[in-house]
Amino acid sequence: MTIDKRSPAWLGPALMCGASLCFAMLDTGTKYLAAHYPLLQIVWVRYIAQMIGVVLIFAPAMRLRLLEAHNYGIQLMRGLCLCCGSVFVINGLARLPLAEATAIVFLAPVLITILSGLLLKEKARTMDWLAVSCGFAGVLIIARPGGGLLTWAILFPMGSALCNAFYQLVTRSTRSSEHAATSNFYTGLIGALALTPWGASAWTPMSTPDFLILLGIGGIASIGHLTITYSLQHASAASLGAYSYSQILWATLLGWMAFGAIPDVMAWVGILVIALGGLVLSVPQVGQLGAALLLRFRQR
């Protein structure tokens, strides 16, 4: 993707922080609805709303070009990965605090480091493995063996992180370039079709306010994905990676406002350790500093 060098330096990071806020709002609304309605019903309608939102916004200008993809197989794999990730994360949000579940989902960057070596034969650097270690340590700190969060429910956000990692690897393994609206449309379409049997059979009547919230979070999901695409037009992926971790802070704030949930000290430590692992991968300066400190430690 070509980066517009005329853009102000703050625009790309601001858009990424905005996208992170959208996803935190999506998770907050999902967690609220999951306490009252079947989980698959929520995910199903959310994908339908996402698909309809893209059509309403882009179809008048793009018409049938909205359906034109360079690689339909890749679109199918992307859609299935994100659909599975959504099912996992909504189950995690229904059973775990918002901030902690969000932090565990952010294991995706460190899982990519492991899987890219196994599947794409990409050689990992020392700092890549340091980031992986930070992510694993952060999850252990949050879960605290012997603590209340170390239950089978923690497998849900970890499964979502794995699905997100596969989604990014599938995207990285192909050179096809799709219009952001086209990819967003097929993500919604594939998720809606895949979940129709379960979503329809689990349907429970919803109050009008709750149904509007559900439609709203589908629209917010579309806006978030599109905002990420536009942010990459103004800054590199490497420079924006660190700003995606603002979602953990947004989730903490929204979790406090909506549910009165505030992470304890150990949870904050785990969140910061996971974020540090992401920073090592996303910001070259952090990785260079870590490498210098590691070399000095070895020389002693």
Can you describe what's shown?
- It contains 13 helices and no strands.
- The chain is an all-alpha fold and 300 residues long.
- It has one domain (11-299).
- The longest helix is centred in the first third of the chain and has 24 residues, at 11-34.
- The mean pLDDT is 80.
The tally of beta strands, per DSSP, is: 0
Give the termini distance in whole angstroms: 44 Å
Q: What fraction of the residues are assigned to beta strands by DSSP? A: under 5%
Overall structural domain count:
1
What helical percentage do the residues reach?
Answer: over 70%
Q: What is the general shape?
A: globular
Total helices: the number is 13
Poorly predicted segments: none
Structural class by SSE content: mainly alpha
Q: What order do the SSEs take from the amino end to the carboxyl end, as H and E?
A: HHHHHHHHHHHHH
Radius of gyration: 19 Å
| Average pLDDT reading | 80
Task: Characterize the largest beta sheet: strand count, sense, and whether it forms a barrel.
Answer: none
